[in-house]
Amino acid sequence: MKPATVSNRVPPPQPCGPVPSTAQLDWHALEYYAFLHFTVNTYTDQEWGFGDEDPAIFNPTEFDARLLAGIVRDAGMRGLIVTAKHHDGFCLWPSEHTPHSVRFSPYRQGKGDIVGELAAACEALDLRFGVYLSPWDRNHPEYGREAYNQYYRAQLTELLTRYGPVFEVWFDGANGGDGYYGGAREERRIDRSSYYRWPEVQALVRQLQPDAIMFSDAGPDCRWVGNEDGHGAATNWAGLRLQGMHPGGNYGSRLTTGDADGTHWVPAEVDVSIRPGWFYHAAEDDRVKTVDHLLDIYHSSIGNGCNLLLNVPPDRRGCIHEIDAERLLAFRRERERLFRADLACNASVHADQVRGKDPAYAAAHLVDGRADTYWATDDGTNAATVELEWPRIQTIERLRLEEFIELGQRVEAFAVDAVSGGVWRQIGAGTTIGPRRILTMKTVQTDRVRLRLTASRACPVLRRLSLYGPDATTV
b/e for 375-391, b at 16 or more Cβ within 10 A? Predict the structure, then answer.
């Protein structure tokens, strides 16, 4: 995205480090979407199916894709990713390459297609649609041999050519172990780094869905955050050194914090379930995460520059359970309460430095609500200050910052001050910003707030500065 107003006198800053693609910029803007773990495991009460399940057990008699997607939309999510095939190998679409699918289940007398129905519902409700296709398959007799690779790519081709645009293709690192394997009932191990020939798989995705974001431990477009607890890192670089990395590799804390010297833009995605497990279990109905827990996850994931992929598993009816649905809607209401009114929009804003003293880069762009404008400083400036002032006292508790990531990630450290008792006092501080940073600070009543960027890899380039009170209303 190019800025709306580019000066003829003062050129914009040059990019710093890796920058996101257009598809990645669109992905960042989504922020929050759903994961739907649904397969034969839902009926066997297992997390990982062995691969020997009878398709006849899969019969979601009340599945309504439009109703389910409507709950996702009403919860404020902007898309969903479905487990088209989990490790058990059961396919939620009528794949032409295996009998282990809905085609041989009672669901709609074998004429159903969970993937297709969800894709159509997403299109109708303006939601993005994504698919998860497990590389590990505990059902297929050829897993671990070359024939399985051909099978896997044939299934991937079905998913990426039958159902319209796919915004994300999700690959995980569960690869090899014991399984049914067509009746062999044995353990099979593979070389995770070479068996699937990942560059060829990724090239196939690029060919069939050029705008799709690919997720794995090693990207190439977005990365696993390194845990399933809903936690991002307070210091979070979108860059990653991809050389030598592959899905299923062990990269430790690098996945959580990214690489400050990253060569590619590979931002983090936080995947976490609303329940203890990834699939629905009736015994967990009283263990659905509370709104306060979900809000903590929101601040740790989205608030630290990650996207949030929240799993909401359909139950045996094929419905999002009433408890889960109620919790999702209450979570949305709480977010809306906290972030309803941006106090910064009512402030006068000025910076101690503006690039070339050119209005095209003025600090006022931080509060204009536009995604295509930004405040910038002169080259060689690695520290700068922005001050906001109101005619009346405001109650301040939360800050949201965004860099203009089209030009890379730059800020390394910042602090926030407010005038209290007639003097400036620090009320918050942080390190990286990137796509966004939401900071909960010491609550203060003030008419002046100051953002100090204390370290930056290149001249700061910020898109947004927002401030909120405890109930997002002015005093």
Answer: bbbeeebbebbbbbebe
Segment 82-98, tens digit of pLDDT: 999 999 999 999 999 99
CA distance 105 to 86: 16
Is residue 38 within 8 Å of 82, Cβ to Cβ?
Answer: yes
**Which residue in 242, 334, 320, 266 sits closest to 35, CA to CA?**
320
Q: What are phi and psi of 166, to 5 degrees?
A: -120, 125
> How far is Cα 463 from Cα 465, in angstroms, rounded to an integer?
7
Q: What are phi and psi of 104, to 5 degrees?
A: -115, 25
Torsion of CA 376, 381, 383, 387, to 10 degrees: -40
Q: Read off φ and ψ for residue 274, nearest 5 degrees.
A: -70, -15
The reported pLDDT for the residue numbered 474 is 41
Which three-class secondary structure state does DSSP give residue 92? Answer: coil
**Per-residue tokens: 76:** 């404020």
What are the pLDDT digits (tens) for 307-325? Answer: 999 999 999 999 999 999 9
HSE at residue 205, side-chain half, CA atoms within 13 A, is 24
- C-beta of residue 212 within 8 angstroms of C-beta of residue 205: yes
For tokens 């299923």, the residue is 248
DSSP string, 285-324: GGGPPPHHHHHHHHHHTGGGT-EEEEE----TTSS--HHH
Residues 92 and 48: beta-carbon distance below 8 Å: no
User: How does pLDDT run across 136-148, given as a tens digit for each residue?
Assistant: 999 999 999 999 9
Q: Which amino acid is at 20?
A: P
Contacts for 211 with CB less than 8 Å, ≥ 6 apart: 22, 23, 26, 165, 167
Tokens coding 23: 């598809």
Give the contacts of 106 (CB within 8 A, at least 6 positions apart): 56, 58, 59
Mean pLDDT over 23-34 rounds to: 98
Q: What is the CA radius of gyration of the chain?
A: 24
Task: Please tell me whether the overall predicted TM-score, pTM, comes out greater than 0.70 for this model.
Answer: yes
Q: Can you tell me which residue has the tokens 């006092």? A: 425
Residues 6+ apart with CB under 8 A from 357: none
- The DSSP secondary structure of 149-217, one letter per residue, reads HHHHHHHHHHHHHHSS--SEEE------EEE-GGGT-EEE---TTTTT-HHHHHHHHHHH-TTPEEEET
The answer to whether residues 303 and 437 touch, using CB atoms and an 8 Å cutoff, is: yes
